[in-house]
Design a protein that fits this description.
This is Methyltransferase domain-containing protein. The chain is α/β, with parallel strands linked by helices and 199 residues long. The chain contains 8 helices and 7 strands, in the order H-H-H-E-H-E-H-E-E-H-E-H-H-E-E. It is globular and about 40 Å long.
Length: 199
């Protein structure tokens, strides 16, 4: 079973009790800074890639944004649909987003980017669906350089599909290589970071 299949299996199994899981508790600390960044826009069409159970959208003002979420886990999408009825959710692979070019003002990817085996393909798709001048927000784990190298070796044996933890420079280079202009990289907590880029 490859990392992608492990991710799908793991989140299908944990979807029903995700908020109480270690993953859910970890992600919880990232919502405030994402909401703050999103709310700098008065309106717009937003896509959450790897939306999980839809928690992020429940924290945004109702009827202010047009909300779409995709996730690889069918069970997570079932949970998302049950809790956030003002958004449109679908099961989809981040490498093949089911949307037209230039569709979204903001694309969010919170605590899922480190699962992606082919990050270039995912960023290419995010770039494709973003409007010109659109904003990309990636919230992901952050680990200092020395420990990160060891951690990335250990992740090869992960049962939950974790694949790669990025450093600031590595992520900024990856964004730039995919025609997404890095705007800022911010430590948002003890083990988390927010990367902001524009198309």
């Amino acid at each position: 079973m490859n990392s992608k299949e492990k991710t799908k299996e793991h989140f299908n199994e944990t979807a029903g009790d995700y908020n109480n899981s270690s993953d859910g508790k970890f992600v919880e600390g990232m919502y405030d800074v994402l909401v703050e960044e999103i709310e700098k826009s008065e309106s717009g069409k937003i896509l959450d890639v790897g939306c999980g159970n839809g928690n992020l959208f429940t924290l945004l003002p109702e009827n202010k944004y047009e909300l779409y979420g995709v996730d690889f886990s069918q069970n997570m999408i079932i949970e998302a649909k049950s809790k956030c009825r003002n958004a449109k959710f679908s099961v989809a692979d981040a490498e093949m987003l089911p949307f037209d070019d230039d569709s979204f003002d903001i694309v969010v990817c919170n605590a899922s980017f480190h699962h992606y085996i082919h990050p270039d393909r995912v960023l290419e798709e995010m770039h494709r669906v973003l409007k010109d001048g659109g904003k990309l927000l990636i919230g992901d784990p952050y680990i200092p350089t020395g420990i990160r190298g060891v951690m990335n070796v250990m992740l090869r044996f992960s049962h939950s599909g974790d694949y790669h933890i990025y450093g600031f420079e590595e992520m900024e280079n990856l964004l730039a290589e995919n025609e997404l202009m890095p705007v800022s990289s911010i430590r948002t907590g003890h083990r988390t970071a927010l990367y902001i880029a524009e198309k």
